[in-house]
């Protein structure tokens, strides 16, 4: 096992040496288990983590520094650090993730019917690069079990639901509309995921005409049932600038509430060293940071403040989260960073962001959003 790249913050070390029976204490036990979990196949380790998290007693998250509060899509987020889709596909542990310190948790991707996904192995760690490649293919239990779970949870904290389409569906758009209708009453926001590289043809829905039809029908369904429920669109980092122009034009015309930039990439940056780089699928984690942040900045420039953006891709430190915000993110999400840094990463990021706000001349996250977009957007 390789150690963390950055040493843990002093506060984190101090906290870990004290007996702590809060959920944060329990969560730190997960961090202790990380080296052992890495001996397992990546997917087995993930299953074990979900099972253990689901068994934890319910806890209320600790209060966040008020400077970290973000208003977006009509919601008030206690802090800007969210759990990205894919970790809790079946909505089994959103409250445990909120209790661990995330400001919001996105469940899914869920498809209407259960789906097995691609043959295993299908998740690979790139230890040398601090990356992950997955070709899961929307493996999930389908809508029904998640509906039951979400109906019975006490609704505290912001939970989003990310919807997709079954691989063998006759009309993909129908599946998204179905997802919006099913989960709008049960989640705080919805994400339309048309950017997974592991369902053949799915990303074609990012093309202007198909996207326009998808958004028209999805938002019509939303307006009919739950008019104020925010609907976000999650895009790939691999779009050409022409494609990005089209996506943003349609998203603005149809008045989506926000966009998530980005999903995993099918590209393989030259910097990759790990032998697993040859596996097919979507690459996430540190090697995705530059590409996804550039795409975020370019999206921010095109959106012109018509709606907020969520930045995802390679966040594994407070500095990386800060750079996302400066590139155009109102909120951020992460997944792969947890694989390498454990749950302690959440507090580390929040503490680091609050420290930056204390010294920044404009002391709010919103005032810093997009400040470095022009630099990031430049061809590198
Ligand atoms: C194992 C794995 C499974 C994922 N599954 C989904 C998914 O079901 N739906 C989705 O929208 N994104 C999924 N993602 C993408 C993440 O939500 C995120 O956009 C991407 O990994 C970039 O963030 P990161 O570098 O912090 O992981 C998955 C990522 C990983 C690593």
Task: Give an account of the 3D structure.
This protein is 40% helix and 15% strand. With 380 residues, the protein is α/β, with parallel strands linked by helices. It has an eight-stranded parallel beta barrel, surrounded by four helices. Strand 1 and strand 2 (75-77) form a beta hairpin. Helix 6 (172-183) packs parallel to helix 7, helix 7 (208-225) packs parallel to helix 8 (241-253) and helix 10 (318-327) packs across helix 12. The two termini are 33 Å apart. Flavin mononucleotide binds next to strand 6, strand 11 and helix 11.
Provide a compact summary of the structure.
40% of the residues lie in helices and 15% in strands. The protein has helices at 10-17, 23-37, 42-55, 94-99, 143-152, 172-183, 208-225, 241-253, 289-303, 318-327, 336-341, 344-359, 365-368, 373-377; strands spanning 70-72, 75-77, 81-83, 104-110, 123-126, 131-134, 158-163, 189-193, 231-235, 258-261, 282-285, 309-312, 331-334. Helix 6 (172-183) packs parallel to helix 7.
How are the secondary structure elements laid out?
Blueprint: H1 10-17, H2 23-37, H3 42-55, E1 70-72, E2 75-77, E3 81-83, H4 94-99, E4 104-110, E5 123-126, E6 131-134, H5 143-152, E7 158-163, H6 172-183, E8 189-193, H7 208-225, E9 231-235, H8 241-253, E10 258-261, E11 282-285, H9 289-303, E12 309-312, H10 318-327, E13 331-334, H11 336-341, H12 344-359, H13 365-368, H14 373-377
Parallel strand pairs: 3-4, 3-13, 4-7, 7-8, 8-9, 9-10, 10-12, 12-13
Antiparallel strand pairs: 1-2, 5-6, 6-11
Helix pairs in contact: 6-7, 7-8, 8-9, 9-10, 10-12
């Amino acid at each position: 096992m390789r150690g963390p790249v950055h040493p843990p913050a002093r506060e984190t070390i101090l906290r870990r040496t004290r007996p702590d029976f809060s959920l944060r204490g329990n969560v730190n036990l997960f961090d202790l288990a990380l080296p052992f979990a890495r001996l397992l196949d990546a997917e087995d380790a993930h299953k074990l983590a979900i099972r253990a998290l689901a068994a934890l007693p319910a806890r209320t998250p600790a209060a966040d520094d008020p400077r970290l509060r973000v208003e977006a899509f009509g919601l008030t987020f206690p802090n800007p650090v969210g759990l990205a889709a894919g970790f809790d596909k079946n909505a089994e542990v959103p409250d445990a993730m909120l209790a661990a310190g995330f400001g919001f948790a996105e469940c899914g991707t869920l498809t209407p019917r259960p789906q097995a996904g691609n043959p295993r192995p299908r998740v690979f760690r790139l230890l040398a690069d601090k990356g992950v490649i997955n070709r899961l293919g929307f493996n999930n239990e389908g809508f029904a079990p998640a509906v039951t779970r979400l109906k019975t949870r006490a609704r505290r904290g912001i939970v989003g639901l990310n919807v997709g389409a079954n691989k063998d569906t006759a009309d993909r758009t129908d599946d998204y509309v179905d997802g919006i209708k099913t989960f709008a009453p049960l989640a705080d926001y919805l994400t339309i995921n048309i950017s997974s590289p592991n369902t053949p043809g799915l990303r074609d829905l990012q093309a202007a005409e198909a996207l326009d039809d998808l958004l028209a029908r999805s938002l019509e369904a939303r307006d009919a049932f739950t008019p104020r429920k925010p609907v976000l669109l999650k895009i790939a980092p691999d779009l050409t600038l022409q494609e990005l122009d089209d996506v943003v034009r349609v998203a603005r015309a149809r008045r989506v509430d926000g966009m998530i930039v980005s999903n995993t990439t099918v590209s393989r940056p030259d910097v990759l060293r790990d032998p697993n780089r040859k596996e097919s699928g979507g690459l996430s984690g540190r090697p995705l940071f530059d590409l996804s942040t550039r795409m975020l900045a370019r999206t921010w420039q095109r959106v012109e403040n018509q709606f907020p953006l969520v930045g995802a891709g390679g966040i594994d430190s407070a500095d990386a989260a800060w750079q996302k915000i400066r590139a155009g993110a109102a909120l951020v999400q992460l997944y792969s960073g947890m694989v390498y840094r454990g749950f302690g990463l959440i507090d580390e990021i929040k503490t680091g962001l609050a420290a930056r706000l204390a010294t920044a001349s404009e002391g709010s996250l919103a005032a810093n959003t997009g400040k470095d977009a022009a630099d990031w957007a430049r061809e590198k």
